[in-house]
């Protein structure tokens, strides 16, 4: 289809439509290939090309994602890249916006991890969501004593809540022995809970690293141990984008060790500011209350009178009320006497016998009028009924049948109006003026 020059698209519009089609049509994908032309400009972004034996694809890994790529990216390395296909509109370059880059060998490992994650989710291992006390009375931290995670946690706790009681349980957080050690420590802490009921939160944490460094926290048995822990567990493993099975099984997940410490305790500076504000508010409320009560006291003091004066005024009021009561009673008694005389005169003039006689006369006249009205109405209704009967007889099909006509119907009751509607050999019912006949069609005549 051709377009006129009036409807021609701009280059920017074409590129924008192409970008939308690529992003919506393909979406996010995993691409495997060989690195080529890796460049790292001062902006911190990484630009490279993925190629195989017959094609290549330009890629861009922006700075906010590049810092989470643990392994160095070198020309010739075979990698798997997760990203979304897009188009750089200013130059019209088709490219892959990378979200994650990993060595190609990690693909099967991640696939197995995803299957394990789905199985544990179906079993309900990731259903924990118990609330954590804030602040905890006694925090138990499971991590390496020489790692950066414990230093970050302690630094944040010291700055936000110096009163925090922390116990470090030293465990390896990397390698084959890490998961068994973490499981054993969790079991020991749960068994010792009865000895120290103040222990109320467990924090499992370590700093960031590669997928292999964090693999111990994807152990199935460790996830189950966290799920079955009687003490609530917070997990803060790796960077913000790293999510392990331990994070999913824990009651609360924090993106980093420092964020975990911030979530566990309030900020003393915020509480101090809040207390200062509440103190000022309390002072203002107390001052306002004192002023209101002082005004009320002045008002009551002005209203206060000597008891003798109050009694004298009440005696005067009582005398006045007594006099008013006497006058009201006398006036009421006189009014009732006048009303009684009036009613007696009315009763004498309205003897019951005369009322009964007048009512009997009215009843006799009403009965006579009713009988006459009923007779007239019945005569009118008889005449109307006779007229309707004549009209009905005039339009009744039975009257037509009485003049020698017949109505033919098939077995379903349908009326035959045309000979073409019948078939030879068809059985029909003929309705006459008196009675019915069963007939059979021999042939149709034109």
Automatic annotation (TrEMBL):
Subcellular compartments: Cytoplasm
Keyword Heme: no
Residues covered by the OB-fold nucleic acid binding domain: 9-101
Subunit structure: Heterooligomer composed of large and small subunits.
Keywords noted in UniProt: Coiled coil, Cytoplasm, Exonuclease, Hydrolase, Nuclease
InterPro entries, per the entry: Exonuc_VII_L (IPR003753), Exonuc_VII_lsu_C (IPR020579), OB-fold_nuc-bd_dom (IPR025824)
NCBIfam families (UniProt xref): xseA
This protein's name: Exodeoxyribonuclease 7 large subunit
Catalytic activity: Exonucleolytic cleavage in either 5'- to 3'- or 3'- to 5'-direction to yield nucleoside 5'-phosphates
Family: Belongs to the XseA family.
Function: Bidirectionally degrades single-stranded DNA into large acid-insoluble oligonucleotides, which are then degraded further into small acid-soluble oligonucleotides.
Organism: Billgrantia tianxiuensis
């Amino acid at each position: 289809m051709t377009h006129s020059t009036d409807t021609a698209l701009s280059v920017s519009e074409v590129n924008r439509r192409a970008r939308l089609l690529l992003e919506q049509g393909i979406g996010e994908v995993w691409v495997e290939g060989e690195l080529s032309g890796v460049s790292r400009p001062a902006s911190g972004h990484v630009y490279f090309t993925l190629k195989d034996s017959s094609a290549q694809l330009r890629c861009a890994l922006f700075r906010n994602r590049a810092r989470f790529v643990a392994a160095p990216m070198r020309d010739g390395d075979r990698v798997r890249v997760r990203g979304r296909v897009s188009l750089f509109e200013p130059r019209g370059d088709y490219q892959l916006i990378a979200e994650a880059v990993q060595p190609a060998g990690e693909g099967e490992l991640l696939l197995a991890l995803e299957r394990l994650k789905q199985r544990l989710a179906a079993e309900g291992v990731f259903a924990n969501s118990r609330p954590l006390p804030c602040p905890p009375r006694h925090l138990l931290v499971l991590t390496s004593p020489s790692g950066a995670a414990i230093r970050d946690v302690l630094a944040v706790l010291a700055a936000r809540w110096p009163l925090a009681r922390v116990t470090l349980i030293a465990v390896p957080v990397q390698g084959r022995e890490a998961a068994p050690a973490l499981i054993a420590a969790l079991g020991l802490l749960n068994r010792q809970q009865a000895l120290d009921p103040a222990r109320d939160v467990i924090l499992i944490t370590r700093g960031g690293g590669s997928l292999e460094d964090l693999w111990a926290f994807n152990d199935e048995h460790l996830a189950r141990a966290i799920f079955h822990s009687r003490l609530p567990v917070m997990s803060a493993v790796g960077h913000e984008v790293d999510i392990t099975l331990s994070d999913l099984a824990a009651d609360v997940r924090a993106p980093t060790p420092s964020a975990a410490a911030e979530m566990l305790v309030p900020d003393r500076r915020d509480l101090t500011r809040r207390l200062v504000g509440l103190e000022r508010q309390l002072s203002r409320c107390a001052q306002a209350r004192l002023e209101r009560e002082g005004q009320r006291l002045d008002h009551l003091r002005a209203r206060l009178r000597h008891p003798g004066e109050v009694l004298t005024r009440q005696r005067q009021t009582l005398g006045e009320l007594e006099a008013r009561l006497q006058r009201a009673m006398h006036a009421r008694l006189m009014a009732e006497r006048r009303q009684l005389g009036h009613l007696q005169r009315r009763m004498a003039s309205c003897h019951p016998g005369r009322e009964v006689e007048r009512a009997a006369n009215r009843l006799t006249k009403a009965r006579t009028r009713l009988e006459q009205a009923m007779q007239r109405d019945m005569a009118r209704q008889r005449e109307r009924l006779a007229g309707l009967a004549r009209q009905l007889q005039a339009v009744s099909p039975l009257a037509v049948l009485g003049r020698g006509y017949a109505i033919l119907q098939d077995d379903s009751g349908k009326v035959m109006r045309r000979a073409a509607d019948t078939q030879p050999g068809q059985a029909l019912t003929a309705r006459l003026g008196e009675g019915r006949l069963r007939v059979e069609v021999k042939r149709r005549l034109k």
